């Protein structure tokens, strides 16, 4: 079974530039999450989708971050403009369970460095 | 959102010893508590979870205990091995009941 795919794996940009990350969840998983993991910390939820609808985006900095999952499968997370503090690994995860008490399957992450 | 506190932040044990990591949570309505293991440079992976209707769950060398009254849960690893060295994260459901909030992690080092 193919896992959660993410790209790019690494990205270096200067502050105020924009960046986009892509995620393809495991086939059949209706729930998709984007987490931000700053070095030395636990993953922090940015946004959760159930199919193509947003379930929770309360911790997404909406002035600069946006995410979409138009067809209920792939998802894109965008940052514009980037700030130094956005340097982190952006983890995409998916889950088959709609009850939110099932296992999260994480991708390998996209490491962002903002200079 | 749900506040999950995790201790200790680092833990060093000798091979064969036991390791215990503790977490507390703030939302009494939380009912699902997983533990994830993240090896260096790799993705987090679920190792064990517990639901609120159970006080303890065991899977070979790892176990999790839950005290809902005190709002804390713990991960126990017995007979530790060098390959147990990793960062361990506890988590609990958010207030919305829809997604997980993670603790800050515990870096476990098992020395031979």
Overview in brief:
The complex is a heterodimer of chains A (115) and B (112). With 115 residues, chain A is mainly β.
Structure overview:
The complex is a heterodimer of chains A (115) and B (112). Chain A is globular. Chain A is built from no helices and 11 strands. Chain A has 115 residues and is mostly beta strands. Chain A is 0% helix and 48% strand. By secondary structure, chain B is an all-beta fold. Chain B is 0% helix and 56% strand. Chain B has no helices and 11 strands. The mean pLDDT of chain B is 92. At the A-B interface, strand 5 of A face strand 4, strand 5, strand 9 and strand 10 of B.
Largest sheet descriptor of chain A: 7 strands, mixed
Give the termini separation of chain B.
Answer: 40 Å
Count of separate DSSP helical elements of chain B = 0
Largest interface: A-B, 22 and 28 residues
Q: Give the fraction of residues assigned to helices of chain B.
A: under 10%
Mean pLDDT of chain A: 93
If you compute it from the alpha carbons, what radius of gyration of chain A comes out, rounded to the nearest whole angstrom? 13 Å
Q: Oligomerization state of this entry?
A: heterodimer
- Unreliable spans of chain A: none
Give the proportion of residues in helices of chain A: under 10%
Portion of residues in beta strands of chain A equals: over 45%
Distance between the termini of chain A: 37 Å
The number of strands of chain B is 11
Rounded radius of gyration of chain B (Å): 13 Å
Give the H and E element order of chain B. Answer: EEEEEEEEEEE
What is the average of the pLDDT values of chain B?
92
**Uncertain segments of chain B of ≥5 residues (pLDDT<50)?**
none
**Net shape of chain B:** globular
The major sheet of chain B is characterized as:
6 strands, mixed
- SSE pattern of chain A, N- to C-terminal: EEEEEEEEEEE
What is the number of strand segments of chain A?
A: 11
